[in-house]
C-alpha cells in the first residue's frame, strides 16, 4: 500500500489517496453475466468510451479536421483540443529536476447543441462522452460505434492499443447516516482506536481482471457540500484492456461488452438495497 498524490485530469485536489493494488488471483473480480437493474434516476453523471490507436505517421490535424464534415449536423460545436505534459524527476544526486512542459493541439472536441453528447478525435485516440441524462448502454454504444466508423475512414488507424469504459457516478447519501456501509460496501476502514468521524476521503483501488484481460480502477471521493441533508459521494469506475487489436478484426468490439459486464459487476456488488432506493 503506497500513498500517491491525486492526479485526476479534471481536478486540482492535492490531498493524498491510498492506492491498493490487488495482484493475486484471490483478489480479482469475478465477472458474471446477469440482469442489471435500469434505474429511472441513474446516478451516472458522465460515461466515456475510449479507444487508443496508432495512426499512420502522415495523418495530421488537418486530416482529422475533416471528421467534422460528417457529423456537423449532430455535433455543430467544434474546438481544438489541447494537450500538455510536464513533471518532475529525481536526479542521481537526489535533486528535483523540473521537466519542461510541452504539448499543443492534438485533435478536436465536438459537442451536440445541448452539450450532452461529446466526441473527441485525436492523433492518438477516439473518445465518445455522454453527460447526464444517460439513457442506456445500447444507445450509448451504438452512437459511439457509428462515430468510430467515421473516425476510421478519416484517420485510418493501424492498430488499437487500448479500449476503455469509464462511468462517473454521483450518489447523494442522505443524512444523518450511521455507517457508510449502509450505502457503499467498499470504504476506508479507520483503526478502532482512532476517532471514527470522517469529514471527507479520497480512495483508489487498482484491480487486475486477468480473465478478460482488463484492469479496473475504482475511485471514491466525498464531495464538499453546503447541503445539510445529504453528502455527495463520487463513485468512479474506469475499466480498460490493453490488448492490441488490428482495426479490421471486427471481433475486438466485443471487448466493450466484457468491460461493460465488469463495470456493472463492480457497481452492483458495491452498493446496497438502500442505495438502489435512492435511484428510483
Strand percentage lies at 35-45%
Helix content: 10-25%
Total domain count: 1
Q: What's the total count of β strands?
A: 12
Radius of gyration: 21 Å
The average pLDDT score comes to: 85
| End-to-end CA span | 37 Å
Shape: globular
- Determine the number of helices (DSSP H or I, runs of at least 4 residues): 5
Q: Return the structural class.
A: alpha+beta
Spell out the helices and strands N to C. Answer: EEEHHEEEEHEEEEEHH
- Main sheet specs: 12 strands, mixed
| Uncertain parts | 1-26
Characterization of the model:
The protein is of the alpha+beta class and 280 residues long. The protein has one domain (2-84, 101-278). Helices cover 18% and strands 40% of the residues. The protein has helices at residues 61-65, 67-71, 137-155, 254-268, 273-278, and strands at 2-5, 16-21, 44-54, 77-90, 96-111, 117-122, 125-131, 159-174, 202-209, 214-222, 230-241, 245-246. Strands 1, 2, 3, 4, 5, 6, 7, 8, 9, 10, 11 and 12 form a twelve-stranded mixed β-sheet that branches. The protein starts with a strand and ends with a helix. The relative contact order is 0.19. Residues 1-26 have low confidence and may be disordered.
Entry summary:
The chain has 280 residues and is an alpha+beta fold. It is built from 5 helices and 12 strands.
Key descriptive features of the protein:
disordered N terminus; twelve-stranded mixed β-sheet; single chain; 280 residues; globular; alpha+beta
List the helices and strands and how they pair.
Blueprint: E1 2-5, E2 16-21, E3 44-54, H1 61-65, H2 67-71, E4 77-90, E5 96-111, E6 117-122, E7 125-131, H3 137-155, E8 159-174, E9 202-209, E10 214-222, E11 230-241, E12 245-246, H4 254-268, H5 273-278
Parallel strand pairs: 2-9
Antiparallel strand pairs: 1-2, 3-7, 3-8, 4-5, 5-6, 6-7, 8-11, 8-12, 9-10, 10-11
Amino acid at each position: 500500500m503506497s500513498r500517491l498524490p491525486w492526479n485526476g485530469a479534471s481536478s486540482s485536489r492535492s490531498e493524498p489517496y491510498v492506492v491498493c493494488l490487488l495482484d493475486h488471483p484471490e483478489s480479482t473480480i469475478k465477472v458474471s453475466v446477469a440482469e442489471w437493474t435500469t434505474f429511472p434516476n441513474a446516478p451516472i453523471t458522465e460515461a466515456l468510451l475510449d479507444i487508443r490507436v496508432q495512426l499512420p505517421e502522415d495523418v495530421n490535424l488537418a486530416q482529422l479536421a475533416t471528421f467534422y464534415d460528417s457529423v456537423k449536423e449532430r455535433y455543430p460545436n467544434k474546438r481544438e483540443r489541447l494537450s500538455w505534459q510536464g513533471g518532475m524527476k529525481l536526479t542521481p544526486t537526489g535533486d528535483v529536476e523540473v521537466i519542461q512542459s510541452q504539448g499543443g493541439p492534438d485533435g478536436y472536441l465536438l459537442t451536440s447543441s445541448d452539450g450532452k453528447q461529446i466526441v473527441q478525435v485525436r492523433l492518438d485516440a477516439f473518445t465518445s462522452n455522454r453527460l447526464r441524462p444517460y439513457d442506456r448502454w445500447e444507445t450509448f454504444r451504438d452512437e459511439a460505434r457509428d462515430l468510430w466508423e467515421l473516425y476510421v475512414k478519416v484517420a485510418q488507424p493501424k492498430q488499437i492499443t487500448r479500449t476503455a469504459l469509464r462511468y462517473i457516478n454521483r450518489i447523494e447519501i442522505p443524512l444523518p447516516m450511521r455507517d457508510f456501509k449502509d450505502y457503499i460496501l467498499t470504504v476506508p476502514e479507520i483503526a478502532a482506536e482512532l476517532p471514527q468521524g470522517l469529514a471527507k476521503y479520497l480512495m483508489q483501488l487498482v484491480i487486475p481482471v486477468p480473465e478478460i484481460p482488463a484492469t479496473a480502477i475504482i475511485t471514491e471521493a466525498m464531495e464538499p457540500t453546503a447541503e445539510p441533508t445529504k453528502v455527495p459521494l463520487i463513485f468512479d469506475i474506469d475499466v480498460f484492456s490493453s490488448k492490441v487489436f488490428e482495426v479490421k478484426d471486427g471481433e475486438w468490439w466485443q471487448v466493450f461488452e466484457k468491460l461493460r459486464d465488469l463495470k456493472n459487476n463492480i457497481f452492483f456488488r458495491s452498493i446496497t438495497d438502500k442505495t438502489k432506493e435512492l435511484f428510483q
